[in-house]
From TrEMBL:
Spans through the membrane: 6-25, 45-69, 75-96, 117-133, 153-171, 183-201, 296-320, 332-352, 385-410, 431-450, 456-477, 484-506, 512-535
Superkingdom of this protein's organism: Bacteria
Gene Ontology MF: a single term: acetate transmembrane transporter activity
Compartments, record wording: Cell membrane
UniProt cross-references to Gene3D superfamilies, sorted A to Z: Sodium/glucose cotransporter
CDD domains: SLC5sbd_u4
Keyword Hydrolase: no
Protein name: Cation acetate symporter
Pfam families listed in its UniProt record: SSF (PF00474)
């Protein structure tokens, strides 16, 4: 795709986002509009907005990149992302809506009647939000660099500016319109090109996706290395680099940015040292991509994805926007259908990318397979148009998820950090939106590129180890106390966050230590439950005085709960 076409796709998506957001500004006047769209969003509209918000860079780009490199084991990501909403539907959706809260810290304070629980929840909301925003900004840099040649910093800056314009104008009411539009744009951006890609594969005789032996270049291929990279060469190969013939022996080799490597047909495909891709038929076999302990890694990933969804603050805040619990359940059912349709597609891109864009294994940028594949397989104007479409969809993915995360983090910062420093809650929200973006942008601009879906998976692990126990016990167990909740949040959330930091910043570990750190949910989530229950049983004197009334509110349908009286965070601003 030409640079001008890529720029046009990005600009059109950004302008459409801003214009649709401005439409929502017309109705955004109160605090309730900014936080929860005054709880007037209909199920189908809300489901489309949730789909737009939830389908992040990890879904649009990361899943395909993981499938390209690691094969069928990575299909647990789309399965887990979708099934997590089933857990949310069964256990959390309606009671959470009935709580009357605006944010997760609001729920913690209302249920446990404790400012300490609120502060602990606030810290974790910000942590998860920043961790989830990081891959959005890094993926934005990857996308703009791939399609336009722009420097890596341009993507995060452009996304942040568009998000701020959308969010600052109308808050939740504004981005509801934006995210609903972006879901359908993302679905179209993947569904239309994949039809042409499958036709090309069909016309090629439907070649096998995982032939035996190590992967090789089917034809003479030139690969330009855009960043400094260390490649692992599986077997001896003769290449041409800058008109010089080089012999690469098996093992690691450092390649400088700007180097063009020419591989002959049949040459084995080296891979970046940051990847350990599956070779041959092992790519199509389950339980082969989990390092030294693939069974543990697989089940820990399943736990993180299934239970982490109910702990994602930008997802949960959407259920506060429904008018009642019945609408919340209907919204969740619609979301399951929308996600199920979408997640059929990324795996197809990853599988076809293994055949037609294997050089991405060498550069390490497997997340770019969705962007590269249409232009590689479809020639002429059609290929250009399809590439523009997937670029627009990718940019929409960054914008929609970043908008939702910014709203959720800004809501917490404005209520718990800024409410005593500014006079207006709307002003506090807007200032919080700025603060919500500063840290992840700084990390994205200074840290090395990380696997998009891998980082999002770690965010799910933190969410599953903190808010999942808080919500399940808070909704279904009346004996939960604030010391128990805080201790569990610190134990599970703290342990999983530490594991995430070590995994992202430290050197890769082997054996059980590496497996436990890379996929912590299987031990940090049970730890959080055990600590919450044990400490709560030992501190029953700190049970919330109004727990019986709160439990009735959570479990009684709205049309019977006549004396409910929603808790309004405006009171926090009016208090002396």
């Amino acid at each position: 795709m030409s640079t001008s076409a890529g720029i046009v796709a990005v600009v059109v998506t950004a302008v459409a986002t801003v214009l649709i957001g401005m439409y929502g500004v017309r109705a955004a006047r109160t605090t309730s509009d900014f936080y929860v769209a005054s709880r007037t969003v209909t199920p189908w509209w809300n489901a489309s907005a949730i789909g737009g918000e939830y389908l992040s860079a990890a879904s649009f780009l990361g899943v395909a990149g993981l499938v390209l490199a690691y094969g069928t084991d990575m299909l647990w990501f789309p399965v887990g992302y979708t099934a997590g909403y089933l857990m949310l539907l069964v256990l959390v959706a309606a009671p959470l809506r009935r709580s009357g809260a605006y944010t997760l810290p609001d729920f913690a304070e209302a249920r446990l009647e404790s400012a300490h629980a609120r502060r602990a929840a606030s810290i974790l909301v910000v942590t998860i939000g920043w961790l989830y925003l990081l891959p959005q900004f890094q993926a934005a840099g990857l996308t703009l660099r791939t399609v336009t040649g722009a420097p890596q910093w341009a993507g995060p800056v452009v996304v942040a500016l568009v998000v701020l314009v959308s969010v600052l104008g109308g808050g939740m009411r504004s981005i509801t319109f934006v995210q609903a539009f972006q879901y359908w744009l993302k679905l179209t951006a993947l569904a239309v090109p994949v039809i042409f890609l499958l036709l090309v594969w069909q016309n090629d005789g439907r070649p096998e996706l995982a032939p035996p032996g190590e992967p090789v270049f089917e034809e003479a291929t030139s690969v330009e290395v855009t960043i400094d990279v260390t490649i692992d060469v599986p077997s001896r190969v003769v290449v041409t680099a800058d008109d010089d013939e080089l012999v690469l022996e098996p093992g690691p080799h450092d390649v400088e940015a700007g180097t063009v490597l020419d591989f002959p047909a049949g040459a084995p495909i080296p891979h970046a040292s940051s990847l350990t891709p599956m070779a041959g038929q092992s790519w199509a076999l389950p339980l082969t991509a989990g390092g030294d302990h693939p069974l543990y890694a697989t089940y820990s990933l399943i736990i993180a994805l299934f239970f982490g969804t109910m702990g994602l603050p930008h997802v949960l805040v959407r259920f506060y926007t429904n008018p009642d619990g019945r609408a919340a359940r209907r919204t969740t059912l619609a979301v399951l259908g929308l996600l199920g349709v979408f997640y059929v597609l990324p795996g197809l891109y990853g599988a076809l990318g293994r055949l037609y864009t294997p050089e991405l294994l060498l550069t390490g940028r497997t997340d770019a397979v969705v962007l590269v594949l249409p232009g590689r397989l479809v020639d002429g104007f059609a290929g250009e148009a399809l590439s523009m479409l997937v670029t627009a969809g990718a940019f929409a993915a960054f914008l929609s998820t970043s908008s939702g995360l910014t709203v959720s983090v800004a809501g917490v910062l404005s209520q718990d950090l800024l409410h005593s420093r500014v006079r207006s809650p709307v002003t506090g929200f807007r200032l919080g939106a700025f603060l919500a973006l500063l840290v992840p942008i700084g990390i994205a601009l200074t840290s090395p590129f990380l696997g998009i879906a891998d980082v999002v998976g770690l965010a799910f692990a933190v969410a599953a180890s903190s808010f999942c126990p808080l919500l399940l016990l808070g909704i279904w167990w009346r004996r939960l106390t604030w010391p128990g909740a805080v201790a569990g949040l610190l134990a599970g959330g703290g342990a999983s966050t530490l594991a995430v930091v070590v995994t992202i910043l430290g050197d890769p570990q082997g054996g059980w230590i590496g497996a436990l750190l890379a996929q912590p949910a299987a031990w940090t989530m049970p730890l959080a439950f055990l600590v919450m229950i044990a400490v709560s049983l030992a501190t029953q004197q700190h049970m919330a005085p109004g727990v019986n009334r709160t439990m009735v509110r959570l479990h009684t349908p709205e049309n019977l709960d006549l004396n409910r009286g929603d808790w309004d965070p405006e009171d926090r601003w009016r208090s002396p």
